[in-house]
Amino acid sequence: MTHRHDTTPPDVTTHDAPEPIRVTVVGTGYLGATHAACLAELGYDVLGLDSDPAKIADLAAGRLPFYEPGLAELVERHTASGRLRFTTDPAEAAAFGDLHFVCVGTPQRRDSMAADTSHVEAAVAALVPHLRGDALLVGKSTVPVGTAAGLQQLADELAPAGVEVGVAWNPEFLREGRAVDDTLRPDRVVVGVTDPRHEKALRELYAPVVDAGVPFLVTDLATSELVKVAANAFLATKISFANAIAELCDAAGGDVVALTDAIGHDARIGHQFLSAGLGFGGGCLPKDIRALMARAGELGVDEALTFLREVDAINMRRRSRTVALAVQECGGSVLGRRIAVLGAAFKPGTDDVRDSPALNVAAQLQLQGAHVRVHDPRANATAARMFPTLGYADTVEDAVTGADLVLHLTEWEEFRALDPALLAPARRVVVDGRNALDADRWAAAGWRVRALGRPAVGPLATVSP
Length: 465
Ligand SMILES: NC(=O)c1ccc[n+]([C@@H]2O[C@H](COP(=O)([O-])OP(=O)(O)OC[C@H]3O[C@@H](n4cnc5c(N)ncnc54)[C@H](O)[C@@H]3O)[C@@H](O)[C@H]2O)c1
Ligand SMILES: O=c1ccn([C@@H]2O[C@H](COP(=O)(O)OP(=O)(O)O[C@H]3O[C@H](CO)[C@@H](O)[C@H](O)[C@H]3O)[C@@H](O)[C@H]2O)c(=O)[nH]1
Description:
alpha/beta; Rossmann fold; binds nicotinamide-adenine-dinucleotide; binds uridine-5'-diphosphate-glucose
């Protein structure tokens, strides 16, 4: 696909029906707010529904309550035009239209690795009794296979007499940091349906996107649910493969960056999702591979996915190995050491800190007695809400000045662009957890650069105790 980083709408005509299709989006977090704003951008009348009144108050006032490039502009523009509205009232949403997208969260359960589908069930249970005419519920949340069929049953039970409620699934593949472009120009649209009328309704809705050449793939409910989790499991596996090889490089003295570049030139392998380093985090990949393993267990086929246990274990080891490297570079203990952590978001381009590897490392070092100061260009506030006891710095300079060790844990462009000669730590030692800094440039400025899966670069003296 072309223009992957462009956040302008695709070059297609917007829907030109005299009466714009009215769509509701239930759950207006990272996924739902993006979906709602992009549907408004495509010309539809959209009503967003969320159970969080603070979030709805922000959105209704045209303010995006989180950071996502290009999205605030869409929300502002379409709330101003009236094409995008928000409510906390399920009855209002039920009366608004006959197409309802379900985008609520499916986090990992507290008591197991399985996904918590209670929000999806609650959303359907709140909406369906208010419906006054036939309606289609379209799930976008990432769910264990079988959820859609269960929701159809629930909807049948709760539908008012004479009202037919269908359930279809339309998994979402957007990446945070590129959510608007991924929504307006996806690699594919996948729909799981049980009725040709549902396929027709979704084809019509997605016509402005699909007419620009995007494949529209129609399948059954179970396959559509599985497509989503299989895609995330594959991506997680690719990353953990690179990180497993990085462990081997450490043992043998190889360089994982040169290695993954070399294997990535094979078109069958490709370069994407082979960046070794601190590993994957966020609100999706970690919980989705665990939920997939849990569901496979319930279905009696857990052997098929035992490799995902290793994918998860390799990934979690990246965090402990980064902590161990920091301890080593501090001469065996971080107690009383001043450590600057560059990055808090789980990846650049977002303020999302859910299961952030950077914050996990920062918290572990603090537990071991280090004085940690974190700086992230966008995620200081969300990080401080989740880890209020960590120290936060408004600038890179504030974080780094006087530090015994610098950890680079989220590869924001701002960090890559730093001039290492201008920084004033107590000791010039950096651990690049993302293999993203120009190690030679940092070494030329007198820094010792450590990374996972790569030989050390720069002055060899370790930090004295
Ligand atoms: N974030 C992503 O990049 C992304 C991409 C693809 C798929 N997904 C999937 O989409 C789903 C949502 O993820 P997210 O990142 O947007 O989560 P999120 O936590 O940002 O948003 C979920 C929203 O749902 C709301 N909600 C919960 N219960 C509700 C209810 N009963 N009625 C109305 N609103 C309710 C919450 O208040 C919240 O605003 C998950 O299943 C996730 O796996 C997320
Ligand atoms: O080579 C790589 C690529 C990514 N990561 C890490 O992997 C995590 C996830 O990155 P990414 O997949 O870009 O972010 P998400 O926004 O979580 O998107 C994933 O999860 C979404 C929710 O399911 C899906 O929609 C997307 O297709 C899928 O890429 C982050 O911590 C990255 O730092 C690596 O360590 N190495």
